[in-house]
Design goal:
Helix content is about 35%, strand content about 25%. It has two domains: about 80 residues, ATPase, nucleotide binding domain (Nucleotidyltransferase, domain 5, 2-Layer Sandwich), CATH 3.30.420.40; about 150 residues, 2-Layer Sandwich (Nucleotidyltransferase, domain 5), CATH 3.30.420. Helix 1 crosses helix 2.
Length: about 270
């Protein structure tokens, strides 16, 4: 069984795969202060609740946009699963060409999303990840990454508004029934959500115009379903797109991950790695 980790700025999404089939999945908050042992105990609890043994995991792959968490997560995998994980980064075989000025600067999540989207939908297409930042990644018919756009996420934009305007309250991000609103909360909801949808639709239109062709548009991320309902350009919502990409990347790099030769009780290895 394969275990995949997508470590984002706000959430860590995890899943277990048997072949290409996603068996279980979890979403937890990203906590930069947690140690590898704390994450190990959390994984043990999640697995036990789902009736899965940690010994069932034979390989692990990690994608992270939070550098301080990579080492603790790798050590957690080695200590509690006795597996050295594959970490998405320079040197990994992606199966795609990265047409970017500095390929090493591309976020691991963007590479994984491109791989997952092309695996699921083919190309050409635009992949939109609605997270702390919103990324638009353009993929051609061969699955090659052509570049894209990085914009503030809807939550990031909302937080900036709350922090800068002392009299405006924090609000729930749900679309109001009308654009012309008669109270402050709904007015903020309309401005944040419909303004964000307008940003997405306009960027997609400009990408299509620059490419000179129509393209499928796939959205992923925690708020993707809500945004897609209001968007005129998004064709598909895929909440497990990144997990799909991680599973595909593991298959292309299976020779680089293996169980550690030294086995023991969880917590016994690497006592010095506190």
């Amino acid at each position: 069984m394969l275990l995949v980790f997508d470590i984002g700025n706000s959430n860590i999404v995890m899943g277990t795969y048997e072949g290409k089939r996603l068996l279980k999945h979890w979403r937890i908050s990203t906590d930069r202060q947690k140690t590898g042992d704390e994450y190990g105990m959390l994984m043990n609890d999640l697995f036990r609740y789902q009736g899965i043994s940690m010994k069932d995991i034979k390989a692990i792959i990690i994608s992270s946009v939070v550098p301080p968490l990579v080492v603790p997560m790798v050590k957690m995998c080695e200590r509690y699963f006795h597996i050295r994980p594959l970490v998405v980064g320079p040197g990994i075989k992606t199966g795609i060409r990265l047409n970017y000025e500095n390929p090493r600067s591309i976020g691991a999540d963007r590479i994984v999303n491109v791989v997952g989207a092309y695996e699921q939908y083919g190309g050409p297409l635009i992949v939109i990840d609605i997270g702390t930042a919103t990324t638009f990644d353009v993929v051609d018919e061969n699955g090659d990454f052509l570049g894209g756009v990085i914009a503030p996420g809807i939550g990031t934009s909302a937080d900036a508004l709350f922090q800068s305007a002392a009299q405006l309250p924090r609000i729930e991000l749900v679309p109001p029934k009308h654009v012309i609103c008669r109270n402050t909360i709904q007015g903020m909801q309309a401005g944040i959500i419909y303004g964000y949808v307008g940003q997405i639709d306009e960027i997609v239109r400009r990408i299509k115009r620059e490419m000179g062709r129509d393209m499928e548009v796939v959205a992923t991320g925690g708020l993707a379903r809500m945004i897609t309902k209001e968007s005129a350009t998004i064709n598909h919502v895929d909440h497990f797109l990144t997990l799909t990409g991680l599973q595909a990347l593991y298959e292309r790099n299976a020779d680089k991950t293996h169980e550690l030769s030294t086995r023991g009780e969880p917590g016994r290895r690497g006592e010095e790695d506190e």
